[in-house]
Structure prediction request, 455 residues.
Amino acid sequence: MALDKIGIAKRIAQEIKDGSYINLGIGIPTLVANFIPKNIEVVLQSENGLLGIGPFPHEEEVDADLINAGKQTVTMQPGSSLFNSAESFAMIRGGHVDLTILGAMEVSENGDIANWKIPGKMVKGMGGAMDLVASADHIIVAMQHKSRSGQSKLLKNCTLPITGIKCVKKIVTDLAVLDILPEGGFKLLERAPGVSVDEIKNATEGKLIIEGEIPEMKLEVAKV
Amino acid sequence: MINKVVESADKAVFDIPDNATLMLGGFGLCGIPENSIKALLKKGIHGLTCISNNAGVDDFGIGLMLQTRQVKKMISSYVGENAEFERQLLSGELEVDLIPQGTLSERIRAGGAGIPAFFTPAGYGTEIAEGKEVREFDGKNYLLESWLRADFSLVKAWKGDTAGNLIYKGTARNFNPMMAAAGKITIAEVEELVPAGELDPNQIHTPGIYVQRIFKGQDYEKRIEQRTTRL
Prediction:
């Protein structure tokens, strides 16, 4: 069965390495924070000027002066730091943030990403997405494999205005985990539980590379 | 020390003319100059170009100045959550320049720091690169982006002193420090205003040299866009 948003978030959480600094985008990426294994230490960056995002506050702790980039009230972890927006993007462009996880409307087989604008619809703006995708060494995209109307979102070329070129390295969808190879192409690594290789083939318009047996994702994390 | 204190928001914004270019601090509704915005509404000037990361919501922040049609152009990175904004944009009443957030913050920083242009990777290969100079450094392509400066910058801090030194709180800092430096005239509003000498110089975020006028703000609403709590 295809994964729900929680399933995608759980699978992405398995990619997170101990000791890393991570920027989580809005939507499914924000959910990833809930599934980071307890035995690893990471620091979450919020581009509005906070390193060390903590959990949502208890009602009595709510502080209008402490929000994340999704404008949600948050708390700070012990050891947090605060800074201005120019400093925040200096740490992003400067390559100090190890991993960026964000959503996408389309990804192409050479790693282009489109996630900021749909022609004919109200344009809200790119926020920090263009800076993040142009700068991060490692980008994981969380997305649905197909649109609501059943069109593939893993394409040969993006049809929507792009946010950045040749930047996505890994994708976790409701159907599969895939790497984008440096020479181009979606390399199938894992299937969602109960999803067949054929289903993934049918849902992928871009070049899909399948080598050997494709294992199912393991989503239940062993209790620590 | 030079005394920068003005009595009220109205006195602080008294000489902002029609068609001025303004910078307004804040990220969403966090750290916005609530008092200066109210004073601009009262003053009723028009044709403003507003440089601000966001455009407020329909009934708060810069959204209030959109309701009164005081804004001609917005320069922002993200302008969602605002129905009146959308209406004016689609009807052609409002011009909008959307800029990647890191490029926006660096253009403002550059404006205050006297750096007319710089290269950034953000937006290379996208539609925002159209017409911009591209240069390769160490095998990667970058876009040339120019500085932004303003006739007036309206910033909000937590504490300030009579000499214009400012300290921000939490993530309400955001764009305020760069904007303070990039305004020809910078107007700072603060929740707490103290005599020069009372703030610890080690803790100052914005040195007073960047601030021309400072006043103690009143009745801060500090509206929250997404109140999220846990049990």
Remarks:
- The domain at 5-209 of chain A is CATH 3.40.1080.10 (Glutaconate Coenzyme A-transferase).
- Chain A touches chain B through 52 residues (CB under 8 Å).
- The longest strand of chain A covers residues 76-82.
- Chain A has a mean pLDDT of 95.
